[in-house]
Amino acid sequence: MGSRGDGEPQLSEYDEEQVRLMAEMCIVVDPQDNRIGADSKKTCHLMTNINKGLLHRAFSVFLFDDQSRLLLQQRASEKITFPDMWTNTCCSHPLNVPDELEEADQIGVRRAAQRKLQHELGIPYKSAPLDQFHYLTRIHYLAPCEDPMWGEHEIDYILFIKRGKAEDVDVKVNPNEVRDVKWVTQDELKAMFADKDIPMTPWFKLICNTFLFKWWPHLDDIDSQRDEHTIHKLGF
Questions:
Q1: What is the domain extent for residue 69?
Q2: Membrane-crossing residues (predicted)?
């Protein structure tokens, strides 16, 4: 990817819609997840800024069906960061807007999760009610992309939600966001991890290796696994 002489990346070679989304304002936080400001998605994902400590708030949704299968998505080729990689159901950021800044009971993050499930996967709000999201913990991680211009440095809220039959979840993917989807069991996901030809996002690997396979057997009592106050520093 090219850049101007001042180091600012040129985005003209990227997908127009994905470039537009780079203007969204993320919530900038300190390592204790205290809100200290806001900056654009583009600014927050440049490694030049990440290497200076810029950190933003994010979330990762894990949506299960009534058979305890996890819905995975493969990120679209159009994505600027981590294109074509498989990951958990939905990964994104609460925005610096009043509804998503509200911190009590993680309500702002839950609203952001609803919004992005609808945007990326077409899942209507009624199929992902706010009170059905189970907040488990937060992770703090840093991960560069294959393209060294970009990366992630996030405090990531982990949200589980279990719904009914897979066919009733009403997934209608946005092809600009999602290339493919798949419902998997624990064993099927482990087989995907064992296949070196299947690319996986770094945060998904960290969450799976540290927590997911321990939590999965407790889906019907998932709040017993909740660690509300810890921010787990993973991967660095």
A1: 58-234
A2: none
Of 96, 87, 83, 222, residue with least CA distance to 160: 222
Residue pair 25/33 in contact (Cβ under 8 Å)? The answer is: no
Q: How many domains does the chain have?
A: 1
Residue type at 28 in one-letter notation: V
Catalytic residue among 100, 154, 177, 208: 154
What digits encode the pLDDT tens for the residues 149-197?
999 999 999 999 999 888 888 899 999 999 999 999 999 999 999 999 9
Q: Is 103 a catalytic residue?
A: no
d(CA 79, CA 10) in angstroms, rounded, equals 15
- Kindly state whether residue 42 falls inside one of the protein's structural domains: no
Q: How far apart are CA 50 and CA 194, in angstroms?
A: 30
Query: Of the listed 26, 44, 90, 91, which one is catalytic?
Result: 91
Which residue carries 């279990």 as its tokens? 162
What is the CA 45 to chain-centroid distance, rounded?
13
**Alpha-carbon separation of residue 122 from 9, 117, 118 (angstroms):** 31, 6, 4
The CATH number of whichever domain residue 161 belongs to comes to 3.90.79.10
Position of tokens 């936080």? 29
